[in-house]
Design a protein that fits this description.
two-stranded antiparallel sheet, binds zinc ion, elongated, 133 residues, mainly alpha, 3-stranded antiparallel beta sheet, 4 helices
């Protein structure tokens, strides 16, 4: 991750931070190029403080996993149809849920409620369909 050597204002929470990070969207949770998922404003160069850059990273994974889960639930081809991938995704969302709950508030980028809801959906699905292996 690229970072500045000078203090500056975070483009997300607007606080002045000693170091700013430029987010490289790179690859998503499933190792696909992330750009296709990003909103237009994600593609403009932006600088984030450390907390916001971490949240941005979480947001990226939450979006990818939610998108695949919605496909799975709709009966479409989904990467989450693979049970190992599903478990890996559920663990990642669990970890993010844990991090956003203990983190600062208010959250600027990622809504803790969205993460909690996705986690509940994943757990309910897993319970209903059983661990395949
Ligand atoms: Zn910030």
């Amino acid at each position: 991750m690229e970072k500045t050597a000078q203090p500056g204002r975070c483009d997300s929470c607007c606080r002045v931070s000693p170091v700013l990070y430029k987010i490289s969207m790179g690859h998503d949770f499933f190792d696909r190029a992330y750009d296709r998922l990003s909103a237009v404003d994600d593609q403009a160069p932006r600088w984030y403080c450390e907390e916001c850059s971490r949240e941005k990273d979480f947001q990226k994974d939450v979006r990818s996993i939610r998108e695949e889960f919605l496909r799975l639930r709709a009966g479409e081809a989904s990467l989450l149809a693979d049970s190992l991938t599903f478990q890996r995704a559920r663990r990642r969302i669990q970890e993010i849920d844990h991090q956003v709950k203990k983190g600062r508030s208010p959250h600027v980028i990622l809504s803790p409620r969205d993460v909690a809801l996705l986690l509940m959906d994943l757990e309910a699905w897993e319970e209903e369909h059983g661990a395949l292996e």
